[in-house]
Amino acid sequence: MDSEARKSLSRDKLLWVYCHMTLIREFEERLKWLVETGVPTGPVHLYIGEEAVAVGVCAALDPTDWIASTHRGHGHCIAKGVDVRRMMAELYGKATGTNRGKGGSMHITDVSKGMLGVNPIVGIGVTHAVGAALSAKVRRSGQVAAAFFGDGAASTGAVHEAMNLAAIWLLPVVFVCENNLYAQATPVEYAVSAKSIADRATAYDMPGIRVDGQDVFAVWEAADAAVRRARSGQGPTLIECKTYRYYGHHQGDNPLRYRTAEEEETARARDCIERFRAQVLREKLLDASDLEAIDDRNRALLEEAVKFAESSPLPAPEELYTNVYVSERG
Amino acid sequence: MTTGVNTKMRELTCSQAINEAIRQEMRRDPTVIIMGEDIAGAAGRAHLGLVDAWGGSLRVTRGLITEFGPERVIDTPISEMGFVGAAIGAAMTGLRPIVEIMFVDLIGCCYDQIMNQAAKMHYMMGGQINLPIIIRIPYGTHGKCLSYGGGAAAQHSQTLYSVLAHIPGLKVVVPSTAYNAKGLTIAAIRDNGPVVMMEHKFLGFAGKGTVPEDSYTVPIGRAEVVRNGKDVTLCGIGRMTHVCIEAAEQLAINGVSAEVVDVMTLAPLDESTILQSVMKTRRLVVVDEDTPTASMARDIAARIADTGFDWLDAPVKIVTAPDTPVPFAGVLEGNYTPQPAKVVAVVRGLLG
What's the CATH number where A304 sits? Predict the structure, then answer.
């Protein structure tokens, strides 16, 4: 997206993009601090550094569209509009959480927002997005599904089966590969045979696009084209977003055991939020005061989220036994 | 057991009964779709007049594509992980998919979707979603003691339902007659959660029975006494119910009165119907085509040994396949599969 194209974007949408990228960052930094101070959130996989991917893709989606997520899913949830208070309450294992305290970080779901689930079985969520797209096609609802997955998931059979199904059935789905260069501690250049994951789209006769995942405008532009293509019945697209996670695979993992400090520094110098901020100020698309107001609001919202989580009730003991089976249809 | 009865009765096979159930539900509810490998066959070849070439491995789905079209009767590539996942995603977003897995031996290719995804989603998402998906899976041995040749061997003849019933959140049903096959299919399609239906390969064509034309349900979670007796309870699952009935007939010749309970739903198990029968007969033999370690047979036996202890006059016995893979040769497979004679011998042992 060039500067002319950026000028045509609405101010509200630009504010939305900044607000959601920074809200994810604020949420994750706050969460990291909470975990470090001993809040028992269970395993968490921080999204910091990759915000432009979730926000760029969700900027192209309608509220009624769907996404399926990965184990590193907090960013996807926030970008799709899930309430951070209920997310935080879920991490605290509280009854007011998105999943009533029965899921935790690796299962956060809010179907009312089109968020079909964080999913820690790597690659599996992609098949569910394909199913949602099948549902949209059969019901002729005009909805689109986006499937997030990592470079690690790119090696799973589930992802390849899902891509083939979506391609033969021309389903309205967008495959979004977040290539952050590492599947836990395994580097992508070791684990992936292709030069680019996007190249694999050729095998399924769909467009494969590689974008800079640290540039929210680039992600947004590619996602927008893919979503239009999907919605008009032309089938799936694969977008590979090259990105970077600033911290370890999960909170507590020391990534310097498998990558270098120089590499981390280089990646951080291309921070997606700093880049967006510099761009919109330089091109006078937004004012510094707009951005500061959002920063203040996000901080207050996170304060509130933590208070909400801390003050919420624990699940009642009998919740252990509820929702095992779905009740019969009337 | 029925929720609607029509006097018009016909003789149907299990496969025909399930076909009719699916057809009636697809007519009633446009959100019901069906998908699987070769459930129609010759997909995309309608212009050559080759549509509906196959109808699934048991021919259960034959003719459905002609009535409902390829948008709702969806042939899939050989991608169990992919299409069971797609069915789950579709079930989360407004459809009621029926998925056919060609044989239970293939669940290894999609076990994650069944045991980690479908079974647990409603619970781990805090009850916010329904997951109306039915997974239909043919299972079982030929078991006919052929003098030569045989069945489909170790990777196409297993039973394996215990590894499904083991997972909390899954309902697992095993019909044994054309009548309960139709009723359980309709109940499963209308259920808002995941249901696995195990269809015995050799009941599909052989198990002819009387079936009402009208739509009806057989409730999930209920066992049924299918033959009354007073000396021993024989508890059967799927085709083994017929083995129990045959054994009961042989026992009757010698004056032994055997009651037969058809389990029909493995999870949630209707322990009370089995217990009621045992309270009357004071003896129990569970007959299961699956291998015995960590099996439904042992589970039922253990439960009744616990709750029925005060009523039992003899140890609870099981008749199952041995802990071996399914062999190919007919003479071996015949010994692998529980036969009525074995059940009769075990009962005689109990009665002394």
Answer: 3.40.50.970
Query: Do residue B122 and residue A323 have CB atoms under 8 angstroms apart?
Result: yes
Q: For the whole model, what pTM was predicted?
A: 0.96
Average pLDDT, chain A: 96
Q: Residue B227 half-sphere exposure, CB side, CA atoms within 13 Å?
A: 23
In a domain, A250, yes or no: yes
Q: Using a CB-CB distance cutoff of 8 angstroms, which residues of chain A are in contact with residue B192?
A: 326-329
Contact between chains at B126 and A99 (C-beta distance less than 8 A): yes
Q: Smallest CA–CA separation between A68 and chain B, in Å?
A: 9
- Closest approach of chain A CAs to the CA of B93, in angstroms? 6
Would A307 be classed as within a structural domain?
Answer: yes
Sequential DSSP letters for B285-345? EEEESS-STT-HHHHHHHHHHHHTTTT-SS--EEEE--SSPPPSBHHHHHHHS--HHHHHH
Q: How many domains does chain A have?
A: 1
Has residue A328 been placed in a domain?
no
Window A:54-73, CB contacts with B under 8 Å: 66, 68
Residues of chain B under the 70 pLDDT cut:
1-6, 147, 205-207
Q: Is B80 a catalytic residue?
A: yes
Rounded Cα gap, residues A87 and B9, in angstroms? 55
In a domain, A326, yes or no: no
Catalytic residue among B25, B100, B142, B156: B156
Domains and CATH numbers, chain B: 9-212 (3.40.50.970), 224-351 (3.40.50.920)
Range of the domain at A135: 3-321
Least CB–CB distance from B83: residue in A117, A165, A328 = A165
Is A173 part of the contact surface with chain B (CB cutoff 8 Å)?
Answer: no
Taking 70 as the pLDDT cut, the residues of chain A under it are 328-330
Q: What ipTM was assigned to the predicted interfaces of this complex? A: 0.96
Q: What type of residue sits at position B48? A: L
Task: Give dist(CA A117, CA A71) in Å, integer.
Answer: 9
